[in-house]
Input
Amino acid sequence: MRISGFAGSGHVLGRMAFYLLVFPGVILHESAHYLACLLTRTRVARFAPFSPGRSDDGRLVLGYVRHERRAFPIGAIIGLAPIILNPMGILAVTAFLTPLTFQDAVNPSVGVLANGIFASGFVSDTPVLATIWAYLSLSFALGSVPSREDLASLPMLLLVFGGGILLVGLLRIGSERVFASAIHDLSALAAGLYALPATVAAVATLTVELAGRAVRR
Output
């Protein structure tokens, strides 16, 4: 996982705080790559789930999985695995640590989240557990961001996916109503799975930006 940001320069305490924040998310991110390699029988040369350093172009490297090059679609599966596993991690810790069920986390609403997190007394009655949940959720959200290398196969993946939808539409399998219903159900599923992770990711991004400004002052 390679990024650029306030952790690359600044005070030692700021960098340490950043490393602590992203540690679980980076571990899950790199583990997703590694698991995808195992499932696709891709040879792994080295697995470093958390190893902060610098790349040749000056970017901050937090972890990496060195594996053999694979053609599409295997390369896309390996590269984009964290986009699936990290959001699932957010849903899992939410269902495990908070009063919300997994179904609540997958299909969140403002009312359900407010009642489950705040009105239920979760934050006030179990502050340590609430802090752990917030920490892991923020870290997993940050870790779901793909690196430049992870996105290398994305254009081809989008092209194939879009071509598949176009082909099904042209063939008119079943009926237009069935096709439209399938697309609607798929979109609803994706929206449900990523609604909570996307919200957490937005909060995490804002947190890191504010922390970065505080460190630079």
